[in-house]
Amino acid sequence: MDYRYDHILIRYGELSLKGKNRNSFIKQLMVNVKKALKSFVTLEFERQHDRMYIYLHDENAEQVSEVLKKVFGISSFSLAIKTKPDMDEIIQACLDSQDLDACKTFKVAARRSDKTFPIISDQMNRLVATAILKNSNWKVDVHNPDVKVVVEVHKDAAYIMTDRIEGAGGYPVGVGGKAMVLLSGGIDSPVASYLMMKRGTHIECIHYASPPYTSQNAQDKVMELAQQICGYQGDLLVHVVPFTNLQLAIYQHADESYAITLMRRMMMRIATGLAEKRHAQAIATGESIGQVASQTLESMQAINEVTSTPIIRPVVCMDKVEIIDLAKKIGTYETSILPYEDCCTIFTPKNPVTKPKIDRCKKYEDRFDFETMVNDCIENVESIWIHPKKEDKTEEELF
Ligand code: ATP
Ligand code: MG
């Protein structure tokens, strides 16, 4: 990456599919980009119909890029130098953008979006390439170049760019409502969280803790996971539910084989109450069909029966291998496999029912006043804000 780049050009991608919503989506994207980059105080932002431009001023392009890679709604971006739409200036900027002392192969890809610009693309390609060849030992390679010098000429400005840097895709967080994601310490639920945010849904997380059966380490691990995913939406609220009493009551009053099903029904009741309180329209989990004995369609029926709030299961049809690949990509995998118990593993019955009957669930639930306990859980939730980690400052900035 080169320090001579003074702008970043952002492309929206998938947004272009959404005719009517387009404007509000782009507005939300602008808000999210600014929020994600708020610690880079000298940045300047400009929004246009199909692009967004960031003027870097004194900020470090590499650090800004790292943050941008996590903002949903961006299909790709490029570092750029802005010049006047003037061929001499364009050529000079192309030369400035490269380390011409190194020996490289290159290709020029020029484009006019302003068709009144007097020099056509082919001619621009030739003029720029000739200038580079004259000022360096570089060679042209149109098929597999080390460097692609991209030139775009608009009506008011021209941009000289690097190759595209892939963005996070999806929709800007905030355009798709809000959901409560059940976040355990496992592999699946952080991936489910990521996929919800990628669809533009703002999330809050719920974690059910059963101290002293689950340890502080287990809870810290969940907070670490929350920290790892929160860069995709900015701040993230995690609700920690004191779940011990309710879980003990289940074990006291129900057949062991139904414990997991009942526990999940209670989780959903609590999540429904919290969703209402926090004005969320859905609940999401990391369940996947057949992954464990209790994750069957019959089990999902029994779980869904306790709430009319939609339950979204983003990884429901994914293979474990696919989920693990995504977990590795978003950086949660290594934390997820740390061996701390969660509330499910503590009370794992030997033979969980794979096809629970709703009638039997109700029969067990009639044996105790679970409603009061559910309300207690909702009342006594501890809500913790998680913020993205501050970017590491480079040595240059420290001195
Ligand atoms: P994960 O890897 O997400 O833990 P898992 O395969 O271990 O998934 P389960 O433990 O059966 O699956 O849980 C299924 C889903 O239920 C989780 O993905 C999560 O959404 C939710 N869940 C389970 N335990 C908890 C918990 N202690 N707190 C919050 N949510 C939980
Ligand atoms: Mg789990």
TrEMBL record:
It catalyses: [ThiI sulfur-carrier protein]-S-sulfanyl-L-cysteine + a uridine in tRNA + 2 reduced [2Fe-2S]-[ferredoxin] + ATP + H(+) = [ThiI sulfur-carrier protein]-L-cysteine + a 4-thiouridine in tRNA + 2 oxidized [2Fe-2S]-[ferredoxin] + AMP + diphosphate; [ThiS sulfur-carrier protein]-C-terminal Gly-Gly-AMP + S-sulfanyl-L-cysteinyl-[cysteine desulfurase] + AH2 = [ThiS sulfur-carrier protein]-C-terminal-Gly-aminoethanethioate + L-cysteinyl-[cysteine desulfurase] + A + AMP + 2 H(+). Signal peptide: none annotated. One of its GO terms (molecular function) is ATP binding. Keywords: ATP-binding, Cytoplasm, Nucleotide-binding, RNA-binding, Thiamine biosynthesis, Transferase, tRNA-binding. Its EC number is 2.8.1.4. PROSITE patterns: THUMP. Catalyzes the ATP-dependent transfer of a sulfur to tRNA to produce 4-thiouridine in position 8 of tRNAs, which functions as a near-UV photosensor. Also catalyzes the transfer of sulfur to the sulfur carrier protein ThiS, forming ThiS-thiocarboxylate. This is a step in the synthesis of thiazole, in the thiamine biosynthesis pathway. The sulfur is donated as persulfide by IscS. This is Probable tRNA sulfurtransferase. It comes from Faecalitalea cylindroides. The gene is thiI.
